[in-house]
Every structure is written in structure tokens, then in C-alpha cells.
What we know:
Chain A is α/β, with parallel strands linked by helices. Chain A has two domains: 6-53; 60-316, 2-enoyl-CoA Hydratase, Chain A, domain 1 (Alpha-Beta Complex), CATH 3.90.226. Chain A has 14 helices and nine strands. In chain A, strands 1, 2, 3, 4, 5, 6, 7 and 8 form an eight-stranded mixed beta sheet that branches. In chain A, α1 (9-25) packs antiparallel against α2 and α6 (133-149) packs parallel to α8 (173-184). Helices cover 35% and strands 17% of the residues of chain B. Chain B has helices spanning 11-14, 34-39, 55-62, 89-100, 134-150, 168-186, 202-205, 228-235, 246-251, 261-272, 282-285, and strands at 22-24, 31-33, 69-71, 75-77, 106-113, 116-123, 154-160, 192-200, 214-217, 257-258. In chain B, a hairpin with a 6-residue loop joins β1 (22-24) and β2 (31-33).
Amino acid sequence: MHYYLDFEKPVAELENKIEELRRLADGRDMNITAEIKKLEKKAQDLRADIFSKITPWQKTMIARHPDRPYTLDYIRLLMEDFIELHGDRRFADDPAIVAGFARFRGVPVAVIGHQKGRGTKERIERNFGQPHPEGYRKALRIMKLAERFGNPVITFIDTPGAYPGIGAEERGQSEAIARNLLEIFRLNIPVIPVIIGEGGSGGALALSVGDRILMLEHSVYSVISPEGCAAILWKKNSNSVGPAEYARASEALKLTAQDILALGVIDEIIPEPLGGAHRDEQKAAEAIGSALKRSLDELMEKPPAVLVEERYRKFRLIGKLAEV
Amino acid sequence: MAWFKKEKNKISKRVKIPEGLWVKCNSCKEIIYRKEVDRNLKVCPKCNYHFRISARERISLLTDNGSFTEIGSGLVSNDPLNFRDQTAYKDRLNESRKKTGINDAATAGSALIGGRPVVIIVLDFAFMGGSMGSVVGEKFTMAAEKAAEEESPLISVASSGGARMQEGIISLMQMAKTSASVAWFKEKGMPYISILADPTFGGVSASFAMLGDIIIAEPKSLIGFAGPRVIEQTIKQQLPENFQTAEFLLKHGMIDMIVNRKELKQTIIRLLSFTAADKYSPKNNEP
Ligand SMILES: [Zn+2]
């Protein structure tokens, strides 16, 4: 059974009907088999139609889809010999970020990413992918190890944001994020971030500085969530805001992969299977794999000093200004 | 990450205070004669709360008389998202410009502090909550690069609710850009002193503001990553007393010291005397 989003309802109805027919036919009734074929084609067309007109708010829903592949799924599908490393050596291990070594198409790499968790129990354990400072400090520790060993870093970004809590503030959430930003700019190895779901604000950015920034077709990247933005800017006379305002905020924020590419913040959009990465995780992983391979091959040719210089220039140029 | 909304005390909206003559303290809520506050460098005489001051006032407080030369004063945002909520971002910018007389929330330039050349950048909370968009990001980066080039110390004064959400992803990227420029600057061995004034939150605290070699806060300033209301809504608990105050950060090891406004300049001079910047001191330049 698939989990369908609201705007997928028409497809859901068709697909449920197909399932029912399949059970009835049991593969023997040729008439029903032909009917199933017809309906499958119809469902496919309908899905293509829906997804060709998808709004930024609907994209946000897909980016947060509970069946969407997470970092550990992509590690399983794309890499071999993953060995997870734990802890920031200062306070704790943060399960909202996973990190370790693996081999990607034969190349030893460090791989780091947010992990949201599947099912209620794991989601709570992983704090819904919202890191504490120790998560960012673990990430930095593994990046520095990768640098010492001369291995490239691949990061997967998928978080609603850094966790807003008492402990997080006590232990320096701001400092942890800021430190990662600064240190990643100094790394003498290629760094390739891939935004696979939600790129939520500073908590996403702390893993998203790099040499080539890739983004899945239905992922989002934003300075604030549409809900947060709407609550501040669309709130009138303390009336509460809802989906209509979230939709407007998500349009205004220009948070889709397509918008972000047009604004010059990322380098490449990785296509997803029709209906989103969760409809065919194997195919999604293959697309990520070939984009990663291309970037990695290019970057591994570059001397470290060139990498660092170009990484600085890349971000230095974001934000064109007028002068009066 | 959104710029900070100070609504802790909703009553303050209803209590009409005559403009000009009296001022209400954000911290102790006392109503005080404005002249008394002004005479005291805009510090509350009752509770030592440090009122927010403009970038101009801050610069004249910290730098030697007449030594400040501004850079990038003409830079303005070109509204990269063409953003509009209930008001167009362009109109908000124009309003803020009229209200404050400055083009955006940061003022940067070179100056002397105790006779030593420095580069200084100051945020102004009165301009859209001191929020960081492309102009603030660019000015900070220009300041850091200038300081690196001239081998001068870099001084920043933050007072900001965070990233400017009307510039969307472009404002988020200013966190990366400014942090990169701090990395660049630090290669030179010169000191970076970051001063945190009330309030310092979100995208500003999670980038350059927390990257100072030395971090100083003004008494009772609120400093943090997430705003207190967001945290309260998330954890559904009351926040501890003094949470996210300068005093709280000092206790948790996040800042070096809390310094009263009237001692701030002297403290910077003393700190610089211990760093490589001291090669500029008159004493060492004697043959
Ligand atoms: Zn007071």
C-alpha cells in the first residue's frame, strides 16, 4: 500500500481499482487483464499530468513524503562497505545525522547525512532529522578525517532544520553551524552536497557547502519553512494561518529545485522517477549515482588549492546587488 | 531563522508612552526619563539593560573621532525573489530607508580604534530587524576582505533577528559567504573581535557573529539560534530563567566576556594590544 498525498487522490483511486481487478482476475481472465493494462496506462498519464502542474507547496509535501528514500537508503543503494562512525567526542552521538566511510564506485569516501527515521519509534530516536550541535560537530569531525585521508566527502541533506531546544542552545547550536560553514571552506578535498528532501534553513546549510551542489527534482531548499514564513508574514490581526497561506509563502520563497537552480545557488537538478523518488528508489539512486560520479571525476582532477579557491569564489558571487 | 519577533510583553503595545520624553526599558519595564538614558550611553540606569543603538551611534562610540571612512554605502538589495507578502519587499525596503536614513542594515568601513587601524562592520536593528540579506552579507565580506588585504583587525557588532526571509535562499547563502570570508581573513593571523548586542539570533549568530576569535556581549543581550517563542512552542515547556541572555551564554562557555558599553572601546584596545595587530601600536613603530 502506498501513501498518497492529497493532490494524488485521482491516481490513488485508479490504482486502488487496478489492485482490486488484479485480485479478481488472478491472472486468468484475459478481458480483465486487458482492462488492467488500459487503466495502468491511464494512471500513468494522469500522474504525469498531475506532476507537470505541481505547485511549490505540493513539492514541499513530496520532499517531506514519509516513504521518500533517506540518507541510509541512498547509502545502501549507492555505496559499498559502509561503516558508520559515531559521536562528536565532546558530548554525545546525534542520531539525527549519520556519518561514516564507504566506497562509491570503488572510491573511498566519507558520507554524511541527515536521517529522519522511519516509523514512530525511529523518528523520535532520530528527532525527525533535526540535529543538535553534537550532530554538526560529528559531521565536521568526519570531514576532517576524510581530509587527512585524502578522501572526498559526499553529504545528503534532508532536515526540517536544526533543533530548537534548550540543550541545543546551551551547547551552542549557532556556534556549531557557523563552525561547520567556516571549516568546510578550508577542506582540501572535494565536497559534494546532495539535497535529497527538505533543505531546511541553517540546519541544512551546515552540510550543504561544497564544490558542486546537487538537488533532487522534488526536493526543496529554503531559509525558513513555508509554515514559519506564513506565520510571520501572512498573519493578520492574529488570525491563524493555514494551507492557503503556506501555499502562498512557498511560492514567494522560491524554494523548489527549479527556482534554486535559476537563482544560481545549486549546480544541477537530478531527475526523479515519475511521482517522486519513493515510487522507484532504485531508479532515483541510479540518477544520483551518475550525477555524483560525473562531479566527482571532475573535482578529483583539481589540485586542493584550486578547489578551495573555487569554492570561495562560488559562494562569494551569490547575491547580486544594485548600487545607488 | 526568521528575524526575531519581540513580543514577550504584549502589554507594552497598549500602554501609551509619550514619544520623546520618556522611554520604557525592555528589561526592567521601568519608564525612564529619556535624557537620563541618553546621558548614560543608552543604558538603563535602573537595571543596566543596554538599549539598541544605531550603527552610527555605535561607530562613534567605538572609533576615534573622525577616523571612520565608509565602504559600500551605496549598496542596495535588488530584491532577488521579487518577494511580496501582504506588502512588497521593495516597499518595506523604502520604508526602512526613510525611517533610518541608511540603505540597508549594515554600515562598514575603516577606522582607528585607540590609534590602531581596524575595519569595522555594524548592524542596525532599526533596519528590518538588522536582518541579513545580500547587502549585509556583501558588506561583511567586503569588510573581511579589506581587513585581510590591509592586515588590520576585523571588528563586527551584531544586532539582528537573523536571515532576511524576503531574500529567501539568497539570504541563507549569506551565512555561508560571510563564514567563508572569516576563514579567508583568519589566514592572515589578524584578530577578529565579534561583539554581540541585543538581540543576535538565527542566521547572523549561526555565521560570522559566533566566529570571532574573541566574542564579547553587552549585558543582558538576548543571543541564540532559535527564537525563544519557537523553542517554547516546540518543547511545550517554560524556558529557564535567564535563558539565551549574555549571562547564560557566558556560563555555558559560548562567549569570552560581558562588557558594559562604557568600557567597550577600552576593552577592544586592551585586547588588540595582545595580538599581532599590536605591530601598529605607536610604541613598536619607534626606531
Ligand atoms: Zn531597565
